[in-house]
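Check out a protein:
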Amino acid sequence: MSIDTHVAKLEILLLACYELGHQPLSLAWPDAALEAAGFNVTPCDLSIENFPDRLVEDVALVAIATPMHTAMRIGVSAARRVRKNNPEAHICFYGLYADLNAEFLFQHQINGHGNKSLADSVISGEYELPLVKLAQALENGADISQIKGLSTPVSMKNPNLQRISFNVPNREKLLPLTNYNAYLNGDKAKTTGYVEATRGCLHTCKHCPVVPIYAGRFFVVPAEIVLSDIRQQVKAGAGHITFGDPDFLNGPGHVLKIVRAMNHEFPAITFDFTTRVEHLLKYQGILSELKTLGATFITSAFESTSDYVLGRLKKGHTVQDMEHTLSILANIGLAIRPSWVPFTPWTTLNDYLEMLVWINDNSLVANIPMVQYSIRLLIPPKSRLLPEMLGSDSLGELDAENFTYRWIHPDSRVDALQGRLTALAQRGDYEPEVTFALVAKEAFEIAERPLPIFSNHSSVDPEPPRLSEHWFC
């Protein structure tokens, strides 16, 4: 569906909170749609910019992007500040975590500012069109209750999964790419751009925040829109492109078309992408071509080295599949950056020790930053894990202000280890070998087991290509 254009004077502030160190598409895409509809838009990225106190005083609509957990925490703080500076502004949250936490956003009142809630509306699903419709309604004093995909305190809506006509993201008002992620390969660094060729995901992993919203659906962004976005970022200095799709290989033909055209136009540009183990096996026939076209590393959610835990998460792969994938990528010469959820209610302390042994035995020590060893399973409201966990001894109450259900591991040593490793991760980054040694020492010590003699990978396994901001949530 296209977005109608008209002459408008409504002032709109778009706030991004955190997007893994990327220049935020969650600003660039809605900015383009709103400006095409005639609105005056100011974007601000709170992850690297100061809060625009004076600007907030004069805007009628503040829209806060919350695509992930960390962004939600920052976004709630931003909403409180908006209420303080401009109690009458309409606050709209949009993005995955906005929908998951809509009940909290509507029910949590801010005392001293008319007891208003954190949010006046929440957009679920494809957000550009509902955001434009909201702005038009506010400008005209019209009813917002019938806007598809837009929830209010008195009217909850299903996600908007209506196809839209995409605009080329508007990056002109964003801070330069040099403020964001850099691509690192040995002693070489490149300015990095960020695009998405698809939205949503075909798959339904139970712990994934995409699933409650998209429920196994995904949408392709037209190739020319993606390529136009790549062109403007290359012009701005990008030498590497990250494809941030939840799963790059949901539509293999679509993304091949894009990277073939990108390589033809910009043969020196490298890129990385994220995809599941299942797809790396299914589409292994195109991996060599992707490397030839400029792919240098892949992020894939390995999550666990316990087949039981993988089954509980509905990951669609086994530990043997992970080992097969590593063999395929090694033969091609493509690096992998596996991501993990090493702490779940079903992961035993022995599972964790076995994961460390597996990482060592498969020469992945150089591929894993400290934060990945410490990640604890998040169970947000509407999580697909909830139905099977309700009534279990491990599941606690909803911690609404932290946007997750609390859970306690039946083995207190596991929770203690997670706490220790989180503290280590918060102290900063270490060299991969040092990271692994610190983690292993903590894990085997708390298990009261002798520390194995692990291989020394530092001299034979150089750190593979990566981005300067380590993946987080």
The longest helix spans residues 69-85. The two ends are 32 Å apart (CA to CA).
